[in-house]
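It would be a great kindness if you could assist me with a short task in structural biology. Thank you for your consideration; the sequence and its tokens are set out here.
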Amino acid sequence: STMLLHLTYPTLRLFLDGMLLMMALYALATFVWHRKPLYAWYGFYLVGMIANLHFNDRAHWLQDQHAPESAVALAQWLEFSIQSIAFVCYIRFASTLLNMQQRDPFSFRLASAMLVVVI
């Protein structure tokens, strides 16, 4: 007999959020242990992605429920803001990981310019 596995979106999100949360907790615990900013930036990026996914789902749910436009706009603004903060954390993570300031000054200036635009 063949058993079909029916995965729903909430089930997949629970798995994804759990995986991202465990990665974030590990990165932040590693930061506490080693005191290297690299781990903090990565942990904050992952937390931002979890929050971003939550507010993305919330905005779509509010639209589907025909909620007031102000509630939908607030959820979309929160999603955009958190996504921007997560992007800033990711740029800082990548810059730190690759030591761009010393190894590739041009890419470091480009990443810094991207940070200014995002902020």
Notes: The first helix runs from residue 9 to 34. The chain has a mean pLDDT of 91.
